[in-house]
């Protein structure tokens, strides 16, 4: 019994044994010791190790801050004459985001169904689907773009496929979590009448998750517009090509025009998406 009790006792309490205090009525109780000093000590050790590993130097940041001021001053004085060259890559960026989001969202729907524990009762299939979705989410869009640029050659096709693959992981993840919270009564009723799994899901579950599904797709579109703007760094088309080119030439006024245009477009998309999501909710 004593051994079982020791195993149930937290490791901290076994190392730092609780303080015994005597109450006014004569009973003796244990008062656990505070974990705050230990947490602060571990946090400090982790921070120190991280600083040494990354070579972080505050004095370097302070001495080089003048360079940052010079660059920012040029960025905030954009070259408006450069706007005409921004339009075509900007449209390409938006097109990549739209097509990639649509393809990824459509493929993500059936994967979300297979990854939902209340719909898919086959444990191995469920685990495989969730593992695939975890892998898809763990790889950044820029890495996907680099891989697909090697496969499909340079251009917007690589960026579109990269956005689609990343969207599959995000939409499916958010959607299957929503599916697992819906009312399963209508679904089970249709199953009892002999309907197939697909028929039951489409008639009983889809109306419940449709607003959430569309909202998730809009959210992914917002993310993809931002992400697609830098895919040109690896040759996947869009604004990233201009950003890399202007940065390499130190044409920071032109870069400022690109960033301001991108900011306005993203802001407008956010406003439209917020409006649409409010209608869906």
TrEMBL record:
An annotated Gene Ontology molecular function: ABC-type phosphonate transporter activity
Coiled-coil residue windows: none
Its membrane topology: Multi-pass membrane protein
Subcellular location: Cell membrane
Domain ABC transmembrane type-1: 90-273
UniProt key word Cell membrane: yes
Organism: Solobacterium moorei F0204
Organism superkingdom: Bacteria
The UniProt record lists the keyword Transmembrane: yes
Protein name: Phosphonate ABC transporter, permease protein PhnE
Pfam families found in the cross-reference section: BPD_transp_1 (PF00528)
InterPro entries in the cross-refs: MetI-like, MetI-like_sf, PhnE/PtxC
Transmembrane segments: 38-62, 94-115, 157-176, 251-269
Main location: membrane
GO cellular component: plasma membrane
Family: Belongs to the binding-protein-dependent transport system permease family.
Key words of the record: Cell membrane, Membrane, Transmembrane, Transmembrane helix, Transport
Source taxonomy: Bacteria, Bacillati, Bacillota, Erysipelotrichia, Erysipelotrichales
